[in-house]
């Protein structure tokens, strides 16, 4: 019997019509069924249990079709089953489909179509290769795996599409979803050539309740690829094991513009580029304890850059949240042209909301671990280490939320300073934590321009490493304010850096140490003197100008290696201090400072650059 073609063939047993061709049995291998291809245009079902139905060419399903329990579908090499033209295909429990090389099943690729896979725990629907040595499914190629898939969900897939209780084995990628949000649950995807499941931009699970108990194992690349905007739709109760890439790959083609919860998976998330959290109405991402994140070079998360956004990453001591580089020897995070300044792995902009919190987090090998610009952050119980530049950098108008929200953090083994912060925000540090063991100093204090203006009363606490001050700290405001420095605090000043009090407005500096825990002010570099000026009668490391209030006091302090130690033009108190190794006098007092209290101080090694007058303290004529 030869091939016979009809414009329309009634398939009575199946209950639908196929427009196309059928074949006589002698045209096939012995025992193989006649083939079906063409277009199914009327509703019907395939019902014969244990029967093998063969699809030997492209088949377009454009009606409501049901494949019932117990049947087997064989799909020849290269044949595509397309659900289109408002058609639907329902695959019941216990159905087995075997695909030849290059064959695949698509829904809504060019026109509307709906796929419903309805297996059960005991009788899953099986999508298998026709031969165990081959892969089936659409193959986009090894250099561009994106878009490969055995089950291919297209732009026009109907909202009724869902996949439940199935087995997908040896596909190119198990499931590819180009657009839309669909339930995929209780599925086992294994041994794919590329991915287990891939969601393109604008695609993802329907919600966390509709993406449960899926298992993806032994695939050649990542078990899952998903846009960062859809991560919040993952349930966290899926299993990923034995895959070529041990991570859920998060792409960042679209921003996270709605509230989301990022849950712990049994593998890390891998971010490959910038991910932005923020929306006009606000967007908050909450990360659950134990979640782990890896980043490729140049990848980072930014929050509140152009629109309000928040990141709540609150781990626990037992289950911290981790952020690290994906490849040994590399750094992740945004990197600026200026070395370090503005770089960051987590980058917080001026629209970051007060909901933001980082607690029990670890950061490793970022450009800078955390950067904030115009934002105030709660960061506690976190460790930032081995970063290229700073552990934490607070840019302009940024800092901790308050001193009670910045506790028990450790910044160590970073390439420059543990923390960079403006002098104006320094009182927001708690002093409870560690900034030791970094390549340079401990805390870099930016006092350039307005960053050095202290216009509110505050307290600077002792740290386990010194503050390194660059610029001019100017203490004073119209209302008058007081800066208190607690015992044991250590300050190291760069060239031309100094403290001035009460220059244009009232202000007070109260630096009171103890016998056993003095406060020190010295040079950051032993060969360079810090302080204002070089002339004897106008130089100084600490300047008490005419509007410095009588509350101002230095007690049990060390002031050394400055142009001159302390310049006094107001009635302030300096007692029990050590003034030593300054270029000029230890203390120089103007004649207009009528009655400063200066007593019990020690002087040694001063006037290294020469002094016109003699004695310490020295009264300027």
Secondary-structure blueprint:
Elements: E1 4-11, E2 16-22, E3 35-40, E4 44-46, E5 52-61, E6 64-67, E7 72-75, E8 80-83, E9 87-92, E10 96-99, E11 104-107, E12 113-118, E13 125-129, E14 151-153, E15 162-169, E16 175-177, E17 180-182, E18 184-190, E19 197-199, E20 203-205, E21 215-217, E22 224-227, E23 239-241, E24 248-251, E25 260-262, E26 269-271, E27 274-277, E28 283-287, E29 292-295, E30 300-303, E31 309-314, E32 321-325, E33 346-348, E34 357-359, E35 361-364, E36 370-372, E37 376-380, E38 383-385, E39 392-394, E40 399-400, E41 409-412, E42 419-422, E43 433-434, E44 443-447, E45 453-454, E46 458-460, E47 467-475, E48 481-485, E49 490-493, E50 498-501, E51 507-512, E52 519-523, E53 542-544, E54 553-555, E55 557-560, E56 566-568, E57 573-575, E58 578-580, E59 587-589, E60 597-599, E61 602-604, E62 618-619
Parallel strand pairs: 3-5, 4-6, 5-7, 5-8, 6-9, 7-10, 8-11, 9-12, 10-13, 11-14, 12-15, 13-15, 14-16, 15-18, 16-19, 17-20, 18-21, 19-22, 21-23, 22-24, 24-26, 25-28, 26-29, 27-30, 28-31, 29-32, 30-33, 31-34, 32-35, 33-36, 34-37, 35-38, 36-39, 37-40, 38-41, 39-42, 41-43, 42-44, 44-47, 45-47, ...
Antiparallel strand pairs: 1-2, 2-3
């Amino acid at each position: 019997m030869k091939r016979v073609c009809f414009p329309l063939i009634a398939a009575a047993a199946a209950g639908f019509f196929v427009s196309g061709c059928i074949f006589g049995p002698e045209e096939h291998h012995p025992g193989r069924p006649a083939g079906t291809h063409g277009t199914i245009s009327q509703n019907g079902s395939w019902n014969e249990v244990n029967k093998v139905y063969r699809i030997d060419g492209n088949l377009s399903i454009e009606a409501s079709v049901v494949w019932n329990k117990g049947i087997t579908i064989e799909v020849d090499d290269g044949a595509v089953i397309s659900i289109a033209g408002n058609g639907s295909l329902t695959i019941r429990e216990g159905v087995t489909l075997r695909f030849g090389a290059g064959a695949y099943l698509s829904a809504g690729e060019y026109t509307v179509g709906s796929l419903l896979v309805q297996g059960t725990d005991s009788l899953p629907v099986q999508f298998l290769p026709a031969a165990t040595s081959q892969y089936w499914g659409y193959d986009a190629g090894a250099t561009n795996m994106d878009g490969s898939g055995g089950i291919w969900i297209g732009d026009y897939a109907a909202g009724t599409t869902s996949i439940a209780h199935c087995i997908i084995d040896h596909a190119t990628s198990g499931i590819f979803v180009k657009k839309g949000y669909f339930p995929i649950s209780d599925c086992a995807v294994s041994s794919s050539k590329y991915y287990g499941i891939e969601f393109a931009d604008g695609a993802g699970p329907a919600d966390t309740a509709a993406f449960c108990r899926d298992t993806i194992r032994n695939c050649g690349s990542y078990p899952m690829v998903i846009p960062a905007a859809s991560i919040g739709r993952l349930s966290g109760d899926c299993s990923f094991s034995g895959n070529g890439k041990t991570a859920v790959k998060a792409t960042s083609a679209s921003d996270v513009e709605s509230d989301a919860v990022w849950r712990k998976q049994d593998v890390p998330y891998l971010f490959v580029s910038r991910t932005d959290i923020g929306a006009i109405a606000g967007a908050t991402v909450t990360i659950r304890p134990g979640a782990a994140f890896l980043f490729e070079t140049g990848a980072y998360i930014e929050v509140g850059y152009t629109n309000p956004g928040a990141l709540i990453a609150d781990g626990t001591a037992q289950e911290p949240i981790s952020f690290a580089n994906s490849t040994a020897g590399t750094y992740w995070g945004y990197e600026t042209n200026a070395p370090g300044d503005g770089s960051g792995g987590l980058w917080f902009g001026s629209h970051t909301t007060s909901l933001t919190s980082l607690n029990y987090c670890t950061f490793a090998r970022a450009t800078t671990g955390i950067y904030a610009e115009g934002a105030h952050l709660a960061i506690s119980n976190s460790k930032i280490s081995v970063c290229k530049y700073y552990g934490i950098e607070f840019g302009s108008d940024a800092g901790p939320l308050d001193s009670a929200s910045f506790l028990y953090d450790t910044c160590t083994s970073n390439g420059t300073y543990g923390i960079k912060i403006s002098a104006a925000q320094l009182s927001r540090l708690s002093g409870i934590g560690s900034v030791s063991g970094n390549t340079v100093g401990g805390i870099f204090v930016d006092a350039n321009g307005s960053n050095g203006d202290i216009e509110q009363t505050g307290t600077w606490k002792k740290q386990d490493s010194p503050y390194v001050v660059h610029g001019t700290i100017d203490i004073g405001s119209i209302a008058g304010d007081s800066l208190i420095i607690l015992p044991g605090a250590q300050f190291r000043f760069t060239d031309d850096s100094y403290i001035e009090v009460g220059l244009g407005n009232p202000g007070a500096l109260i630096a009171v140490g103890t016998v056993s825990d003095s406060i020190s002010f010295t040079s950051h570099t032993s060969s360079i003197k810090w302080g204002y000026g070089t002339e004897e009668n106008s130089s100084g490391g600490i300047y008490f100008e005419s509007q410095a209030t009588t509350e101002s006091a230095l007690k049990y302090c060390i002031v050394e290696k400055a142009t001159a130690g302390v310049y006094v033009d107001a009635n302030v108190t300096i007692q029990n201090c050590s003034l030593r190794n300054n270029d000029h006098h230890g203390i120089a007092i103007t004649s207009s400072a009528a009655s400063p209290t200066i007593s019990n101080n020690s002087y040694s090694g001063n006037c290294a650059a020469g002094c016109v007058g003699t004695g310490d303290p020295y009264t300027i004529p």
